[in-house]
Known about the structure:
Blueprint: E1 2-5, H1 10-20, E2 28-31, H2 45-59, E3 65-75, E4 83-93, E5 98-102, H3 110-117, H4 122-130, H5 141-146, H6 153-169, H7 171-174
Parallel strand pairs: 1-2, 1-3
Antiparallel strand pairs: 3-4, 4-5
Helix pairs in contact: 1-6, 3-4
Amino acid sequence: MKIAVGSKRKAKINAVKKAFSLYYNDIDIFGVDVDSKISKQPMTDEETIQGAINRATGALKYGDIGVGIEAGLKKVPQTITGYLNTTWCAIADKDGRITIGSSPDFEFPPKVIEGILEGKEATEAAIGVFKRKDIELREYGIIGELTKGIMKRDDYTYYAVLMALLPRINEGLYG
């Protein structure tokens, strides 16, 4: 089975490999450049989910399965900053079925949120906070910085992929 991930980012591809390999054999997983067709920094779950769906359906042109992964913010007034970050995964197949899952939510530091509200993408806003120029390319990502290396970016993203797989690995329960 050819599984096209709508991104060439290593962490996203690794997360898809980790989740799919638990349930499927003989898989070929690879990344392709796909436009999310949403803003660089989505600010609602609805927009973020649409970006994941757009990436999945765009990637489907290159494989038997298309996987889209998109991170974005959502308003949560009871938090320190008023926002939580969530990663969403959409999995699309040739039958037109799309399944969706999300990662755990977490809160960015206030300075990162300030940068985002000024128009920066999360990674761009985080570079100054963590004093790293290469945070986007680093293995740990922002979540790795915040967990002090305990959770890597691909491990965090893996949960979104795993949740999107649930209806596919439990066909009898979902119809």
